[in-house]
Amino acid sequence: MKDLIQKLINEAENEIKSSLTLASLEELRIKYLGRKGSFTNIMQNLKSVRSEEKPAIGQALNAAKNELEQHLTTKQKTLEEEVLKQQLSDDSFDTTRPGTHYETGHIHPLSQVQKEVEEIFSQMGFAIQDGPEIESEYYNFEALNVPKDHPARDMQDTFFLADKSHDHHGRMVLRTQTSPVQIRTMEKFGAPLRVIVPGRVFRYEATDASHDSTFYQVEGLLIDKNISLANLKGVMTEFLTRLFKKETKVRFRPGYFPFVEPGIELDMWCLLCSGMGCRVCKHTGWMEFMGAGMVHANVLKAGGIDPEVYQGWAFGFGLTRLVMMKYGIDDIRLLMGGDLRFLEQFS
Ligand code: DAH
After folding, report:
1. Which of 139, 140, 177 has the most ligand 1 atoms within 8 A of CB, as the residue to mutate?
2. Model confidence over 19-69: pLDDT tens digits?
3. Beta bridge partners of 199
4. What CA–CA distance (Å, rounded) separates 236 from 238?
5. Is 223 in the pocket of ligand 1 (CB under 6 A)?
6. Quick one: CA dihedral 239, 202, 326, 107, positive or negative?
7. 291 lines ligand 1 (CB under 6 A)
8. Which stretches within the chain are classed as H helix?
9. Got the DSSP string for 18-77?
10. Under a CB-based contact definition with an 8 Å cutoff, are residues 128 and 121 in contact?
């Protein structure tokens, strides 16, 4: 009997050694240790063994079984390692392939730049305010020194709401500018005042590469005693230098806006050539940036502030245009168009 066991072990060991795949190894496990396997068979035949020999043979059988199990496990590990090695060195398994890409979304470029603008002005002590996008004619025009029937109303093509039932504040409009929030913040906080107002505005305009019916502006308002346009020059030079992370200069030109007197247009150094003159700035060295001026006495009065005591300046620039300048975008429609091929470049 013992010889039989030994023979079986030798045979099994040889077969395990020469087994080349995990599948064939599994077959061997079944062949020797399975329910109908060779060792199970011998166990069953133990009945026919003489009883005084039974314990010794039983022990030998168990020891043989354990030995076999160990061989099988060792061989299994070796084969598994080999499979892994093979996979790693196999040309068809490319370890440099990028993993699964998960879509996470990101902040829209307009919001990204808006946040940067807010951070810079906050550091300079400006509060951030907002106001309604559906506005009354009074706040959008009258209070800003643009009386009814004044030709300056034609400067901004306006969407009027169909609902005509309104009080002394006139009809309702989609605000054409963020300037009405000047009046609202003056009414709310009085003087002195230092705010910026980023926000969405609307114009009844035909769309093309540089016009959209919806775009974004940033309004600025500073009111205090002894304020002059020199302060505006300093604030804007600092703002633009920080935003574009390179030295920037600004210049004033006369400009007309009903809510300021005097009114100016502010130009900044061309982003590309820093004043040298290039194709982008049409060889002037400057780019138009925004309208501004000293707040008109009528506007201060409309906001409840005494123009004999306080002065201030205001400005308004196009946030949408700023984003276009910053990233060299040549069609405004891309920004509100929702085309992912465009937006995904800003993640
Ligand atoms: N609201 C003007 C516009 O939309 C821009 C502007 C010009 C705002 C001069 C101002 C300002 O506050 O002082 O065209």
Report:
1. 177
2. 888 899 899 899 888 888 888 888 787 777 778 888 888 888 888 888 889
3. 217
4. 5
5. no
6. positive
7. yes
8. 2-18, 22-33, 38-45, 54-89, 109-123, 137-140, 180-189, 229-244, 297-302, 319-327, 333-336, 340-343
9. H--SHHHHHHHHHHHHSTTSHHHHHHHHGGGS-TTTHHHHHHHHHHHHHHHHHHHHHHHH
10. yes
Residue pLDDT, tens place only, 247-256: 999 999 999 9
Q: Which position has the token pair 């990233």? A: 327
* Rounded-to-10 torsion of CA 203, 205, 210, 212: 60
Rounded distance between C-alpha atoms, residue 1 and residue 15, angstroms: 21
Q: Which residues contact 150 (CB under 8 A, 6 or more apart)?
A: 141, 258
Write the pLDDT tens digit of every residue in 67-97.
Answer: 889 999 999 999 999 888 887 777 777 778 8
pLDDT for the residue numbered 331: 94
pLDDT at 164: 66
Parallel, antiparallel, or unpaired: how do β-strands 134-136 and 172-174 relate? antiparallel
* Residues shown for the chain: 347
* Protein residue with least CA distance to atom 4, ligand 1: 177
C-alpha span between 277 and 127 (Å, rounded) = 36
Who wins on pLDDT, 171 or 217? Answer: 217
Which ranges in 46-193 belong to alpha helices (H)? Answer: 54-89, 109-123, 137-140, 180-189
Q: Which atom of ligand 1 is nearest to the CA of 259?
A: 13
Q: Are 195 and 127 in contact (CB under 8 A)?
A: yes
Closest atom, ligand 1, to C-alpha of 260: 13
Nearest to 195 by CA among 21, 277, 316: 316
The structure tokens listed for 152 are 């300056």
CB of 232 shorter than 6 A to ligand 1: no
333: three-class secondary structure by DSSP: helix
As a whole number of angstroms, the distance between CA 129 and CA 198 comes to: 7
Name the DSSP class of 171. Answer: S
**Claim: this prediction has a pTM higher than 0.90:** no
